[in-house]
Amino acid sequence: MSNAPELFALENDAWQVRVAPSLGGAIVDARWHGRDVLRPTPAAELEACNVRKTACYPLVPFSNRIAFGTFRFGDARYTLAKNLAGMAHAIHGVGFQQAWSVHASDANSIDLRIAHAPDEHWPFAFEAQQRIAIEDDTLTLSMRITNTDSRATPCGAGWHPFFPLDTASGETHLHTAWTSMLVSDANDLPCASTPPPQFGALDNTVVDNCFTGWSGSARIDTPHHRISIDANDTLRCAVLFRPAGQTFFAFEPVSHANNALNGNEPPMHVLAPRETLEARMTLAMESLRRQA
């Protein structure tokens, strides 16, 4: 008997997108005119319900690392359970490890929801709604997070999309603007900031850093197509991750710096009871014809 999650398909004349609500509300694959825009989930990883090998998953209510799973907020100090094997820190929130319920769906969109009660992974109550939609050549991801706790709470949002690198066909380049790169220490935690370097082809780049002062827009030029990314003002930072020897990279629009709860800036948003935070990003596609 298969353990693979139920998939919901979105499709129009340009896009074919599959979503796994029960697997962290993740996108399994996203193809534009038959070509992978996001790294497709291998069948074996889907069968194993390995959300970290999916094409894209939501980051809520925080992104990246909280140092050793501890932080102070208000008058209290909190210790979180480590949520990934072999990881010394709490990472990427709790949304990607929960099953999302389907509130509504049709051929072009799906609306997902989770309700989180305080536990060892996150001590504050919240509800999150995620919408994944396609229209013409654009894929839109949106999220609305509501503080359902009786206290003011820290809150963050973002997404972790992975993009394939087709080194056999040519180079992939990222074009964007940001003001600082956070330098990481031996524990993969920010310890300083520096002017951002200029990156060449991502195929030849090794990087895993958070960039602050992000403009909110980026362009990815692949050998086949161009992806124009635009985000709303909530998503003030971006993480660029390209591990050595791998045929993918991640470009993650997020709302705050890595380890923001322990003093790195920009900080997480703070929501009063019933207050909401809204995040939105779009991926708009166009063809790139290679020169003869």
From TrEMBL:
Listed SUPFAM superfamilies: Galactose mutarotase-like
Descriptive protein name: Aldose 1-epimerase
One Pfam family it belongs to: Aldose_epim
Entries under CDD domains matching the protein: Aldose_epim_Ec_YphB (cd09021)
Highest taxon, organism lineage: Bacteria
